Amino acid sequence: MSQFSRRKILAAGAAGGALTATAAAHAAGVFGNPDLPPEGQLNSNARAFADPGPQNPAMEAQIPSFQDPPPTDVNGMAQFWSSFSLSPKRVQAGGWARQVNTEMFPISVDIAGVNMRLGPGGIRELHWHQQAEWAVMTYGHCRVTAVDQNGHAFVDDLTAGDLWYFPAGVPHSLQGIGPDGCEFVICFDNGASSENNTLLVSDWLAHTPPEVLAKNFGVPESAFANIPLQQRWIFQGKEPGPLANDVREIMPGAGPVPNPFTFRLSSMTPNKLTKSGMVQIADSTNFKASTTIAVAMVTVKPGGLREMHWHPNADEWQYYIKGNARMTVFNVGPEAMTADFKPGDIGYVKKNFGHYVENTGTDDLVFLEIFKTNQYQEVSLMDWLAHTPSAMVQQTLNLSPETIAKFSRTVQDVVPG
Fold it and tell me: Is 103 among the residues known to form the active site?
């Protein structure tokens, strides 16, 4: 046999051995790459992973985990990422609004979201809804007014981090006040709700016969000659005077509501506080008016992790206020999908789906977890394993007793990276 032929045979054998070794490595799931066929870029050759077709680089840069998912992601899952930035604004003289509901975000069956801006003096006109309205202030200052079903009156001024909640059918108004008005996010406790499906006082009066208006209010028909014939929705008004003046004006004959419609979330003592962040919870136990919406405001320091957990009583609608995040959601199947979030983005996690949220930036991550329920509930993976007999956990997960002994026996909510 020639030297040339011998070298060819040896090279072919070596190549075959390398392929056999690679196949053996992929023959069973391995740590960090559990699936067959293997998932992720590390199991793809460079040319197969490349994407030479048309690109939208700006969009792809927003959600890098969609372009290069970790090899632990597997199978399909309903899209749980959206953003107010994808929604067109409706703009009027006093401000603007945009919304995300089931029409554009089908998974969000429990919650519809509205992002609204009111300039100084801008008024979201007197109105009410068929759904309850919960909101968080994200910027500026706002005056809210309301009257409950028993005729009690309410007025308050809010700033960033404050909440309001109006039960279905409670009439109210919103107005931006100085120096720069306000911005806020509203959540309705029905994913199909729309900001365009609102009962407006201007619409009702314009579509009621003048003689009925006169009879109802006990004044001449001519008193209504100048009412607007089209809805006002968001219009430019005059900035209101001091809050105390409005309080004095509306209270006689009414009295205050038994449970205030507003709550100072960002200034409350945290329910959980660790070196890596904190969680502040507002539900019907402390924000008594809020009977259909519970919320947790979560702060995660750089490198920290909103620990692996799930919620047993409601779907979770998320709103990202500050920082950068990555979340993986887990379901039966198995299904696992990872997405990235920036300020203004929205996430949605179905009830009982496991998930974590990781701070992937250099600043604090702040986001809201919002639930259609009267009480916040959570199950921590680490707390479950720490309070299960050690032998059971050892045999199930092949973990050493020393590893299990290090699990925290108190719920942390936010853990170090």
Answer: no
Q: How many residues does the chain have?
A: 417
User: What is the residue range of 283's domain?
Assistant: 267-379
Distances 68 to 71, 72, 318, 323 between C-alpha atoms, Å: 9, 11, 23, 21
Site of tokens 């067959």: 36
Same-domain status, 255 and 143: yes
Global model pTM greater than 0.85: yes
User: pLDDT of 155-169, one tens digit each?
Assistant: 999 999 999 999 999
- Name the region of 40 (left: φ>0; alpha: ψ -120 to 50; beta: rest): left
| Residue 215 included in any domain | yes
Is 178:110 a contact under the CB 8 Å cutoff? no
Specify whether 121 is located in the same domain as 252.
yes
How many structural domains does the chain have? Answer: 2
Chain segment 12-56, per-residue pLDDT in tens = 444 444 333 344 444 456 889 999 899 999 999 899 999 999 999
Residue 132 lies inside a defined structural domain of this protein: yes
Catalytic residue among 133, 369, 378, 402, which? 369
274 with 256, same domain?
no
Tell me the pLDDT tens digit for each residue of 330-363: 999 999 999 999 999 999 999 999 999 999 999 9
